[in-house]
Specification:
The chain is α/β, with parallel strands linked by helices and 384 residues long. Helices cover 38% and strands 16% of the residues. It has helices at 6-18, 35-56, 78-81, 105-113, 138-150, 173-184, 214-218, 220-227, 233-245, 248-269, 324-328, 361-378, and strands at residues 30-33, 68-73, 89-94, 120-125, 160-164, 189-194, 207-210, 276-277, 292-295, 298-301, 310-315, 333-334, 349-353. β4 (120-125), α5 and β5 form a beta-alpha-beta unit. The chain binds pyridoxal-5'-phosphate. Residues 35-37, 76, 79, 126, 130, 164, 166, 194, 196, 202, 207 line the site of pyridoxal-5'-phosphate.
Amino acid sequence: LGTGWRGLINHHIEYLNSFNLTGYVPENGSFVSYGATDGITRAYMLARYTLHQELYGNKPRKYEYSPKILFPTPGFTILGKLPRELGIQTVEMVTDKKDNFFYNPQKLKEFLEKEENQDVLIVDLSIINNPVSTIVPPEQLKQVLEVLENHRGRNGAKVIVINDCAYLGMGNQKQLKRNGEIMNSFKRRIDVLPMTKIFGRPSFRGGFVGTPDEALATHIPAITKLTSPSVSYAMMAEAMAIWDFVKFEDQLSFFDMLHHRQKKLLEILSVRPDIFNLDEYILSGEEDDQEMKEVNGEQRKSEDELAAFYLYVQVQDGIDPLDIPYRTRCYVNNEDTFYLNSKRKGPKYVRFALGVESLSDAKVEKIKKELIHWKKVTDFVNFT
Ligand SMILES: Cc1ncc(COP(=O)(O)O)c(C=O)c1O
């Protein structure tokens, strides 16, 4: 039925289990996907199908019931845009820096309770966010899940969470495990674990989808067999080889390397305070377990809470992000990429992506010098 090899499914389950995500329904509860994008597409279809069955069963209906998807921004917007191709509407919720660019529990509650949002029954969650690259604080995750657990939409329908684990494993291990434990208490969810980022192989297109919820699991065969009657043996064979021969310690060295590059990039950018405002990062580099640090009476994240492989950096007032490649010779993603329809007000951000370029000490010094050089070269230009 296109669910993929059992042994491969088990590898993903063991990985998720190590972060306290457990209880996948045996037999029907999981399948192999082509990375996150395919996995999430099918997770949306599964959620819609399940809600339709719960609300209307097999009673003939002119149209299939269409729940709406709540998508937080800034985020990886392809996942907010692709529902349109399935005939599902996405509702955007812009999150705030002071809420760690994650849902604010109170605002979420008020939003869901509005009459016009009674069909918002699928909620996208990512414990490690792209572009922000930090792990959601466990307490905030807990409060958000409580809101979702208690909410009832159209005809008493309950929310289904899509838990995007694209970067699971990167960053502070303790915090990830705590978040896993909290997430695990919310059963009505679909976990998507792509290996495209975790193995550092975007084109490899391997991944997993699984649920601990019986009602969702029942409908997995109906969804998988229609979209992928079978899963590529070539991909699965390669995935099995990686799972069998790459130890988690090796995986951790890869994550450490990404983290090292994040720190190095912060150090590099600090030579251009005219363009980048790095106030929210602490550059001391000391390791500790605290989620947030208090600096000058303000709660700030430490660089050691960085996960994934991005840096989301605030730009100084008056700097147009579109000028940054010219002013620095560094390529950045403008923040607009991470919003659907909203034009956010307030300070601007850009996202750097790391992972391909090695950042040795010699190279770091060279880039710093070049950044200072390009300041001199471009200083005479009037950018306004
Ligand atoms: C949060 C998040 N989810 C999913 C994806 C897509 O992953 P995949 O390449 O496995 O489809 C990305 C890609 O950048 C991402 O950042």
